[in-house]
């Protein structure tokens, strides 16, 4: 992404930290979780499918990251919004 905008990786990271008060990696993680929440609203998608679609190579890494940010597991989130 840095290359696309003509920045070095370090410069892009520094710019994110200065302007948004969050690291680029944290921003990316948040974007992935927001997209995962959107996908979880679609009942027909399996959670493992959502994990891979949002850039995670393992279901456990996805589930742990989701829990870290949302304070509930993906299945619990899905159940709570689809009642």
UniProtKB/TrEMBL annotation:
This is Helix-turn-helix transcriptional regulator. Keywords: DNA-binding, Transcription, Transcription regulation. SUPFAM superfamilies: Homeodomain-like. PANTHER family: ARAC-FAMILY TRANSCRIPTIONAL REGULATOR (PTHR43280), HTH-TYPE TRANSCRIPTIONAL REGULATOR EXSA (PTHR43280:SF2). GO terms for molecular function: DNA-binding transcription factor activity; sequence-specific DNA binding. It comes from Xanthocytophaga agilis. Gene3D superfamilies: Homeodomain-like. Residues 1-80 form the HTH araC/xylS-type domain. It comes from the Bacteria. Pfam families: HTH_18.
